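Figure 3 (text version): structure tokens given as input.
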């Protein structure tokens, strides 16, 4: 079931990004599953470059929005502009009316801006005044945040976090990868290579691939396994006695939908038309880590969301 366009898409992104295999695969899965992605990692790890390469490879319109504390909702959505010549208001579209949005340092924007973005992510539309405006059918938000610096930031609301299909943790490259990164940067500065990905797939083809993902078969036992992993976050004591107090709020049923959807997309990316338990296991941490609200006692005990998810994976037998 492997599609040549998907292979070409992966190759184009890999031609720009050194290493980061998991990041590239998760970005493609998010595109196929139709979900937004939150990227967390220190500066300088090619998060912006990866997003731009993805948009260029898909021939999609791209807009980077730098989130700052003084940003206003209208800076994202656009606004109604008064036209004195005919005494009427005309809508001037904002940067959200693009197909791929890079929301850079998303946690630096105030709550009103987050609310405007939440409507766009959840409903694929924005509201300005009394009017609602539809966003492009292919609409993907890729947001970044820096875990090292919290001054001047606003915690993302749980409702907004729940709208992200994945939260991906970006790590530093290996020594050999960093050497190659430096070599490519030096060659680009000297004009020996042409930077940037080439378009190999269109937005319409992406939408058609999403329809193919819905045809991937997921056996009822695997479907049940995915839902059990999610529901276990709301009943942790049954799987790890004494750990229930660590989680204030577990993952919602939206996480069950997301986990099954990305497992189907992962199967398609692997060239299969059916899901296997490994598809669920591999992606469960990325789907669940940002959906768990932990109690302060978890931090005191050195327990984070990834440890909880991994414990559940080890505690629940796959089919």
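Below: residues designed for each position.
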């Amino acid at each position: 079931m492997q599609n040549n366009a998907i292979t070409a898409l992966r190759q184009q992104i890999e031609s720009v990004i050194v290493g980061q295999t998991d990041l590239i695969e998760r970005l493609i899965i998010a595109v196929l599953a139709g979900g937004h992605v939150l990227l967390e990692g220190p500066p300088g790890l090619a998060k912006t470059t990866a997003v731009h390469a993805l948009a260029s490879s898909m021939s999609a319109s791209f807009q980077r929005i730098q989130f700052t504390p003084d940003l206003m909702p209208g800076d994202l959505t656009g606004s109604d502009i008064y036209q004195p010549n005919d005494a009427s208001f005309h809508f001037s579209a904002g940067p959200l009316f693009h197909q791929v949005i890079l929301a850079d340092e998303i946690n630096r924007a105030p709550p009103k801006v987050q609310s405007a973005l939440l409507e766009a992510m959840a409903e694929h539309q924005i509201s300005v005044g009394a009017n609602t405006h539809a966003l492009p059918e292919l609409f993907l938000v890729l947001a970044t945040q820096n875990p090292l610096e919290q001054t001047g930031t606003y915690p993302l609301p749980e409702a907004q976090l729940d709208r992200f299909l994945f939260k991906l943790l970006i790590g530093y490259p290996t020594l050999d990868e960093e050497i190659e990164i430096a070599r490519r940067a030096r060659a680009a500065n000297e004009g020996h290579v042409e930077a940037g990905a080439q378009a190999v797939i269109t937005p319409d083809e992406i939408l058609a691939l999403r329809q193919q993902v819905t045809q991937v078969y997921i056996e009822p036992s695997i479907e049940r396994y995915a839902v059990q992993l999610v529901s276990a976050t709301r009943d942790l004591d049954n799987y790890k006695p004494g750990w229930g107090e660590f989680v204030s709020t577990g993952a919602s049923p939206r996480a069950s939908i997301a986990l099954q959807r990305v497992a189907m997309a992962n199967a398609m990316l692997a060239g299969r038309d059916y899901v296997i338990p490994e598809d669920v296991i591999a992606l469960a941490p990325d789907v669940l880590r940002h959906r768990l609200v932990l109690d302060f006692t978890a931090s005191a005990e050195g327990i984070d969301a990834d440890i909880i998810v991994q414990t559940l994976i080890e505690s629940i037998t796959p089919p």
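The mean pLDDT is 87.
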